[in-house]
User: What shape does this take?
Amino acid sequence: MNAHVADTHEHHGPEKGLMRWITTTNHKDIGSLYLWFSLIMFLIGGVMALIIRAELFQPGLQFVDPQFFNSMTTMHALIMIFGALMPAFVGLANWMIPMMIGAPDMALPRMNNWSFWILPFAGTLLVATLFVEGGAPASGWTMYPPLVLQTGAAFPMLIFSVHLLGFSSIMGSINIIATIMNLRAPGMTYMKMPLFVWTWFITAYLLIATMPVLAGAVTMLLTDKYFATSFFDAAGGGDPVMFQHIFWFFGHPEVYILILPAFGIVSQIIPTFARKPLFGYSSMVYATASIAFLSFIVWAHHMFTVGMPVAAELFFMMATMLIAVPTGVKVFNWVSTMWRGSMTFETPMLFAIGFVMMFTIGGFSGLMMAMTPIDFQYHDTYFIVAHFHYVLVPGAIFSVMAAVYYWLPKWTGNMYDESLGKFHFWISTIFVNILFFPQHFVGLAGMPRRIPDYSVQFTDFNMISTVGAFGFGLSQLLFVYIIIKTVRGGEKATDQVWEGAEGLEWTLSSPPEYHTFTVQPDVK
Amino acid sequence: MSNTAGNHYYVPNGTKWPFIGSVGLTTLIVGFINLLNGSENGKYVMIVGALILTYMLFGWFGQVIEESENSTYGAWEDKSFRLGMSWFIFSEVMFFAAFFGALFYARVLSVPWLGGAGDDADTNRMLWEGFQAVWPTNGPGELGGEYEVMAAWGLPALNTLILLTSGVTVTWAHHALKKDNRKHLIIGLALTVALGFLFVFLQAIEYKEAYHTGLTLGSGIYGSTFFMLTGFHGLHVTLGAIMLTVMLVRSMRGHFTSKNHFAFEAAAWYWHFVDVVWLGLFIFVYWL
Assistant: This one.
């Protein structure tokens, strides 16, 4: 390196005012932007969920017309997946990966700014579909043709917001890969990396391999609607089912994009509060890689009922059930880490344990529907809704909350209010189960998803579920309050924050300097 | 060389370019959306968006080139750029994979099924009686009417030769750059750029002929896969040729050294990538 580099690398603080946030190349600023964006989208998507649950409180049509109801299920999913969960995980990656591997920042800081600053534009485009002629997309987030082609003026908005969101994810993932491969501190070998870094490393590969495929799929939808192509039209030799294959080739890895970083977070938190190193570190890494590999060869289990050769049904059934093996390894390792540990139950640990319990419930119902003949009964029922909400809400979202409680003292320098945090955990856990557990029963009894009305025999469980939904939704206002309160002040956090915490990020001050590890540490 | 203790990684100060890029991109897209929804004004919005994007590209790349010429970047930063470009190209490969996937699905599964293959004899008998599954096809509905199949051994074969030759000339330029032979570098690059644009020109002629003989985007699954695959490829060739043109201009201005020329290599990688995609196209779209 020549002397010039030292000149350009002056230590400086952030710019002042709004321009700081628009122009920032700092991984901590960008991480915060991602997290705030995610929180806002989480609340918007949450309101949509409450509209759905209010309508389903009793049979018959009460509040919204069926078209708008379908728009709500579609938009709720798109906003929660692309607007809330994915940006939350990318935000955590931005904040934590450089600090965990001893890097001065992300590898490509300007592109990092762009990955974030596409999101508010894409999100606005998506939310704006609510206000155009024909209403918001109502075909389900999976956008199956030919139904999706009947969307009104919102159709091209939907397609291009998906393009933009994908563009952002690809740039974000490239950055994460380059950072992990190139900016690890001396001595930080791959097999010494914290598990959160490992799971994100693998997730980033899932993203760059599948987001372009989604872009291709929605491009074909666009040309089918406006430019006379017939990819998904049998009269022209195409096939609507082909869309489903291409979509789910993206869609299944996408499911793991939403859960692998959660595995990473839980694998950071449990050892800290069990005061024991993670049990089976290397098996965790291999299990994550196996899950990622398998995610590419199981997609058609989302479409067992659409019709495909029996050999294909069998293959996708077997491959899907194989996923239970590496996932089982993970759950076993988390439990074994806690075995005979000196455990304490601060809020992040409560959320992490809640994750292990309730994610596993979702995992088991997933195994049930992996079996082709049984899935014929479950397909498109509330049982499916219950399943994926168990893995995504008390699964993925709980992990994000755990991460926020775990690292908020590091980010802000202030401790959150522990008793409020615990209270937030308990009401969230109670209400989330009231919300989603009854959906298993109505689903098994045959209640279809994505329909605003239902037979009277499903009423009791739906009422319980709606009560849970409003309880869970209101509980999250407490979460917002706790975050804002902690950002504004509170008891000062120590550098290590948690007694059992280990890793480079805990060697930094709380809050950390604007630029950290400009000189890389030596990892023994 | 890279991450030994005491080394500094270059972390740039704040930048306005990405935000301007987002504004430009969104303007372009909103214009296109309006156009698709039937508002003619969309065109003008699109032009404004494209101008903003162009301004951003000049500004952002201009800044990076200046930093590069000022030796702001060392081997460590260089490796990040290399990783970034390689994985970006990988994502592009996956984008084409979606369209190749659609082609294979149609040829191997959906068209034979419509013709009654497998368990689908009834589909054929009840819905599309008399439809024979042959490739190419515009489907049992004969969408788009009569058309002529693109022959592999006319213009497409010539274009294959052109692209393969351009792969050789860009490698020649690279070797010249590594030996500090500026003259051969410029000649090699100029030839590559010329061959690249010649390819695009011949593609345009081929498209014109296709539309003349009735083969359009609306010619069923054959027309769809043919134009979408070759169209996106042509777009990427154009992009690659523009990248190489920038490299040519920079070479003429005396940029790059035998040791330090990541931008040139990135453009060359991209060029080889479009080359390989073309070989796939030539084999599966034109030939077989």
